[in-house]
Amino acid sequence: MTTIKDVARLAGVGVGTASRVVSGRGSVAVATAERVRQAIAELDFRPSHAARSLLSGSSQMIGVYIPMLKGTFYTPILGAIDTELRTTGRHMVVAFGCGDGDARQQAIEGLEFLIERGCDGLVVMSDALREQDIKALGPQQSKLVMLNHRFVNLDDQCFTADHTRGGVLAAQALLKMRHRKFAVIAGPSSSPDNVARVEGFMTELQRKGIDASQVVTLQGDFSPESGWASARSLASSGHEFTALFCANDEMAVGALAYFQQAGISVPGTISVLGYDDTPSAEYSAPQLTSVHIPWREITLNGLRWLLNQCYGEAQPVLRKFPVSVTWRASVAMAQEAAEPKAVSRKKPVPVTR
Predict the structure, then answer these.
(1) DSSP secondary structure string for all residues of 215-234
(2) Looking at residue 19, what is its pLDDT?
(3) How far apart are CA 306 and CA 312, in angstroms?
(4) Which residues contact 335 (CB under 8 A, 6 or more apart)?
């Protein structure tokens, strides 16, 4: 296998000079650099990644930690990071939660794995880590960006959306369609962004004169399976509701699957609103109305901030990410509100199957 020594020998220069030409760092006379390039072409020399790292003092790799490697939420985020890095000749290394420890321990081990692999910087999505865990990284903490989580003492390194606002918009969307009877499938109570969106939803209902304490709320785990199980529990509970807010799209898709199986019409009997506006929302049946969180923009701006820190770049970085609602087929006017006034209304029938 051709080495940098072979290139130097053929070009008639020292290894240090050949290395400076390969790395693009340091001053080399034009004629000398041309001889080195000719030797590289003649020998078809391709430095290994390890060699390039030694030459440049940088691995040109960014580590990415996510809690799990499944579902439709994380895949687009990983795709956006990978595409952005490849445009500049860089690559990503991914670690995700696994093992016997709790979520916090898995995240700590994941970061250690990425640092051991020589990653120049870290993109982290985890609400299990604490500020002391970040401080324990030492100098590496300055080359880290947090997505969808905020630490008070690391505010400049955190990129997220206003999830309280997202919850408010969810409530406003359903109220706009004249719904007055609600149910909620929330995510884990340990997730700060879940707590924020549910609180925003309930606060807006309360502001509009609806007793939020009467809104039945079940807790899922952000998975389609928990959405399906929660929808089944709601349907058999006898609780009257015409609108269901799910704290993420995957639980909403699970709920839609249960309602279809049970013969409950969406949006005829129940309107369903999701959160995140992931690709699954567009291809569910019916297509899911969802609170749009601009995850791609959040991810890319966090990544660009990190590239500026790691490689001295000056890419523009945005920090405000507007939240909105993407309207599709799963939300409609409440049946009672849609009935002509001349028609006598019957008492709502509990949703039971």
Answers:
(1) SEEEE--SSHHHHHHHHHHH
(2) 77
(3) 10
(4) 242, 268, 269
- Of 27, 20, 29, nearest in space to 56 by CA: 20
User: Would residue 105 count as lying in a domain?
Assistant: yes
Exposure of 340 in the CB half-sphere (CA atoms within 13 A): 2
- For 15, the domain range is 4-56
CB atoms within 10 A of CB 157: 20
Beta bridge partners of 118: none
Q: Which of the 8 DSSP states describes residue 67? A: S
Alpha-carbon distance 157 to 144, whole Å?
7
Residues 79 and 167 in one domain: no
Q: Measure the CA–CA gap between 227 and 280, rounded to whole angstroms.
A: 14
pLDDT of residue 350: 54
**What is the reported pLDDT for 47?**
65
The amino acid occupying position 244 is L
Above 60 in pLDDT, residue 51? no
What percent of the chain has pLDDT above 70? 91
Q: Is residue 277 part of a domain?
A: yes
CATH of the domain at 49: 1.10.260.40
Q: Give CA separation, 283 vs 25, 66, 328, in Å.
A: 49, 24, 10
Q: In the predicted model, is pLDDT for residue 298 greater than 60?
A: yes
Distance CA 325, CA 238 (A): 29
Which token pair is 243? 């609108």
Preceding peptide of 267 cis, ω within 30°: yes
* Residue count of the chain: 353
